[in-house]
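Recall that a protein's primary structure is simply its ordered list of amino acids. Everything else, from secondary elements to tertiary packing, is in principle encoded there. The following example makes that idea concrete.
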Amino acid sequence: MIITGKLIGYGRAKAAYGNGVHYQIVLPDKTLDNLKAIALEGQRWLVTAERLRNLANEGHLDVAIARRATFTEEVLASIGEYLRIGAFFNALAVDDYGRIIGASSYGIMFPGEAALNLQAIDPANLAGAPGSQQLRGIGTAMVAAISRQLLHDNIESVILHPFDQQAAIFWYKRGFVPAGKGGLMRLSGRKGIEKLIDGCIAVPDEPGKGDIVICGEERTTAPVRLPQAASVH
């Protein structure tokens, strides 16, 4: 399974034990193949979320983890629909096996301000989920790649609504501060957005087409341009 579109980042997601995986972050084209691939991977995320919910119901897993797992599979389903109707900018992290391991969407509200609408990683990789092969760093890498796109668009303020307290801590550590009712958080200033790329490297892509973001171990991540496919309407 190949997701076609604009490559904005790549890297290596690390695992606590064993080998990690290489991944690409892409803004997917609106094609039938991409929509089918997202739907298929959405089913895999759903099955994982259901397994985690069952473990929580049996008392073997923190209920908060099960709630986050439910949120993640809803995110991927939403992004599939956003792509179908042409809403927002959507980003997917896809590993070498064709699995979608991360998903985000963002939109430009008005000149100078953007909203990070949704972000989630494969529920199998949630902190606290059972297993020892969880991949780490995918969410941070997606934030870095999207931030580079926002800088290209002259964005100087980013808002978001974190899903829960753990998510709020994630964003707070990256410079977001409380900014209103409902848990709204905001990051202001280009320097603040630039800091979201910390730990990754922005390098030139094809001439005249901006930069991409490299995260993880650069020497083991070869940039591979994704093929383009005809769009659908």
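Residues 5-219 form a domain with the Aminopeptidase fold (CATH 3.40.630.30). The chain has a mean pLDDT of 86.
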